[in-house]
Design a protein that fits this description.
This protein is α/β, with parallel strands linked by helices. It is built from eight helices and six strands, in the order αβααβααβαβαβαβ. It folds into two domains: 1-58; 84-264, Rossmann fold (3-Layer(aba) Sandwich). The longest helix has 56 residues, at 2-57. The chain binds zinc ion. Zinc ion binds next to loops.
Amino acid sequence: MPDGSNKPADADRIHGHIVPLGACLAITWMSRRRAAERRMAVVEAFGAIIGRALDLALPPRCAGCGEEGRAICARCAPALDARLERAAGVPIGLPASIPHPLLQLEWCAPFSGTVRKALHELKYSGEQRLAVPLGAAIARRWREVGVGGDVVAHVPVSTERLRTRGYDQAALLARAVARELGRPAIRALERHRATVPQFELDRSKRAGNVAGAFRVRAAARDAVSGRWVVLIDDVTTTGATLAACAEALLDEGAFAVSAIAMAREA
Ligand SMILES: [Zn+2]
């Protein structure tokens, strides 16, 4: 029975090799998987940023018509100045006058067509280059109808939104406006309470949603005190968010607060 007696020994030998080999493969596989997981975590963390960097390396396409070359082409650009010639103030037909305590509430165009597409791309597609032409349009409208204003500030997005998006679109707009107007842009405000996105609420609930949600950053107190602040936002509807920001600025000693948005949703 030499064959039979050898079998277990062979099996043991083979088994003895298979087990460590299997363990080796398993360890290799697990470490590879861990490495892959780590890579995925890195990709997830930086993917959006890298994606945006790649986007910015490509030539821009017009947000209005898709033509390659500029973020807004010459044919679509007039939409940004739809209200440039209009008198200051809230025209008859729109709900509510200027919400307290804002001194002024201005906007450049209705929230539709090219302007709507451009703001959507700036906000959700990472097309940060749009902040320059949009900011320039805000500055043009402000030069026409704006009164006062020592410093430019913006309505900040939530920290969570900032983390996932990687930038604050209103801050980019404010920076572009400040450059155009030759006034300093300050990061004056922060959100200290979570809010429901305003578009999810009907008009009557919006003021309550954002009341007390903003405060002046400790580092910006001196820059705000005694200043006339021009607040910038991408879109406004009732002006409730801008008014809540104005409350926080005035509580911190701002002299006055005016506001201008790129677009207004009627
Ligand atoms: Zn175009």
